[in-house]
UniProtKB/TrEMBL annotation:
It holds the Pfam family Ribosomal_S3_C. Belongs to the universal ribosomal protein uS3 family. It comes from the Eukaryota. It is found in: Plastid, Chloroplast. One of its GO terms (cellular component) is chloroplast. The keyword Mitochondrion does not apply. GO terms for biological process: translation. This is Small ribosomal subunit protein uS3c. One of its GO terms (molecular function) is structural constituent of ribosome. The gene is rps3.
Amino acid sequence: MGQKINPLGFRLGATQGHHSLWFAQPKKYSEDLQEDQKIRNCIKNYVQKNMKIASSVEGISCIEIQKRIDLIQVIIYMGFPKLLIEPRRIEELQMTVQKELNCVNRKLNIAITRIENPYGNPNILAEFIAGQLKNRVSFRKAIKKAIELTEQAGTKGIQVQIAGRIDGKEIARVEWIREGRVPLQTIRAKIDYCSYTVRTIYGVLGIKIWIFIEEE
């Protein structure tokens, strides 16, 4: 049967780069990996806590981590950086992450970059769809709205898949909609992908989004 591979890992070195850049001794590798995960979770939790209730979308597309001997550089790519524009908030976030890591001899530096087309990014779209599904909007409506938003952002194709107890039905099923072309087999094609879990009242739904950006 067709083996599905993560489109980002499949394109590493061709059209896709790593989100964490550092070198480690084999014995220390697992610790560093867990540290990265801690940093990412800590930032996401902080943003979630301080979100305004009005917009359900956090707008974090990805968090890049670069480590040197005495410095950890974290770059947060955001679609709507209203929350973290104030320097006070960034300092507070730095303190929170440093407490979580308790790193004494390393400096932590957090920078924020704004993305041009937020809705051309799968993570932000998935959050948008998740917000809609939590408000009990029918899943087809939510997906169609998301696809409209992506088309305005100027992408070449998108595929959205939702799995689980859709609309609270007893039997779980998988539904997907594709617009434009999504060439998953072509390594040259720059494809952005994310999988996202939503906790609804009936249970957990999984959202997967593939966005075809351009061909190199």
